[in-house]
């Protein structure tokens, strides 16, 4: 995931899941150096090798070339093609975290580029991690995830984590249920079908999508092929809805939050209080309206990425449950979630996704 402060020729970037450090080296060609746990580095390089086979029918989707690597010890590293020094987030959002005119057209163009990947690699194999991402991981994050609890305890002004997750939620005056209650309601409405697999990126947020220097398409970085030690039965495969949901949670929540945080403007967007058994979240009216509209428009855009056979009666429930799962996962990050405002904004985004899944 790209971003960070600057220095001549070398800039440290914000590192995502599994990375210990990430550096952008301005050179000819420019290079990104990634350092992380050996198993993560090996998994990522194997993904890039496999991706070129699975995406042959999508000429406008590329993956970086690995120039050199070392993954023989507990800590590994590799140097890879950097591509442009911007991401698709820069095409959708301005430097104030506001959606640009024409953002829908940009997102639709990306969806059109990705569509052949899912269409031509779709299998009849059921995704063995489907239920885990729909329900199990979210439930674990909200009830017994140690990293999430530790991070919450560090944040000044945040009520005890147990009180939060057991409380009913109100956002901008709208009363919602408790997180676990909404999760149970959404899961109960599904008819028990299991999502089929295709090749997926696994972490398809905006900062992992770079406009290509070679053509009108995109370079995809920072994939994910396993979660908490759980890997799919078919390597690098999962539900295309999971990729689509990661696009959604990024467009309609994570990207504007990160932009505001990096400019020290997140505090103005949210307020949080706990009134007995009710968690009250008040979001800036303009931010709330903008992200609400983005959720609606992004849903329409990303649906065009998917094979028609996936758009059954349950697809929106799955879509929003996957998105909620991705949102809540960010609450474990000490780098990203270091103060109350950012925590509240990300938690509110996850709750809004759960609410849509349950309604």
Rg (C-alpha, Å): 19 Å
| Overall SS class | alpha+beta
CATH superfamily: Aminoglycoside phosphotransferase (APH), C-terminal lobe
**Biggest sheet strand line-up:** 1-2-3-6-5
CATH class category label? Alpha Beta
**Approximate helicity band:** 40-55%
Could you tell me the strand content as a percent range?
15-25%
Total count of strands: 14
Rough outline = globular
In DSSP terms (H or I, runs of 4 or more residues), the helix count works out at: 11
Separation of the first and last Cα atoms:
32 Å
Tell me what you see in this structure.
There is one protein chain. By secondary structure, this protein is an alpha+beta fold. The protein has a single domain (85-358), classed as Alpha-Beta Complex (Aminoglycoside 3'-phosphotransferase, Chain: A, domain 2), CATH 3.90.1200.10. Helices cover 43% and strands 16% of the residues. It contains eleven helices and 14 strands. It has helices at residues 38-54, 88-92, 103-121, 130-143, 146-154, 161-165, 179-189, 240-262, 285-303, 315-329, 340-358, and strands spanning 10-12, 19-25, 31-37, 61-62, 66-70, 75-81, 168-171, 174-175, 198-199, 209-211, 218-220, 237-238, 270-275, 278-283. The strands form four sheets. It has a five-stranded antiparallel beta sheet with strand order 1-2-3-6-5, with helices on one face. Strands 8-7-14-13 form a four-stranded mixed beta sheet. It has a three-stranded mixed beta sheet with strand order 4-11-10. Helix 7 (179-189) runs parallel beside helix 11 (340-358). The longest helix has 23 residues, at 240-262. It is globular, with a radius of gyration of 19 Å. The model has no long low-confidence stretch (mean pLDDT 90).
